[in-house]
Amino acid sequence: MFFSNAYVSLEYSKTAFPKPIKFSDTERLDLSKMVLGYTNGKIDETTLRGSGFFTEDEIAHLSDVKSLRVKLVAFHVGTIILSVGGCFLLAKLEDLKSLVVFLKKLLSLLAGIVVISSVLMIANFQSFFIKFHEIFFKEGNWAFEPTATLIQLYPEVFWFDTAVYWVCLISIEFILLALLVSRAEKKINKSGDK
Question: Most buried residue among 20, 43, 93, 153 by CB atoms closer than 10 A?
Fold first, then answer.
């Protein structure tokens, strides 16, 4: 969702979004489509190099971003498989109370991640952003000058907005799951009272 052309276009259309200094708005959108095509595995590095806009350090960083994206997707899919698998296993065992306990623990973990992430981001986004990069990227290929193409395409406000939207999306998912678990728990308790 956040790494789509539609999302980037939405961000770029905001009146307060910083204007690029190296290229036109149209070029910026085209270059962003190129970056997203690369990080999504649809184009290769030669296209980035051929554009003449990206340095080797920027391309190296995008390669790391692409790798991290693949790992995050795999983690997300793995988490879903484990969660759904755990639910099916517990449901098959007809141990619905254990299923509810499992889901409550999952919700607690999710709530903790959302709360900690939110506090860290709101308290000092720049420190959070730097620490994120220090953890997930090689030293030396993620800090760029303000005039760098990647910074012109995705300034800090882009990442702040993305972080806020991510927290909101996760919070909505959390609330929906909490409502489902609460409803299931009420049904289980109601059927146990009979």
Answer: 153
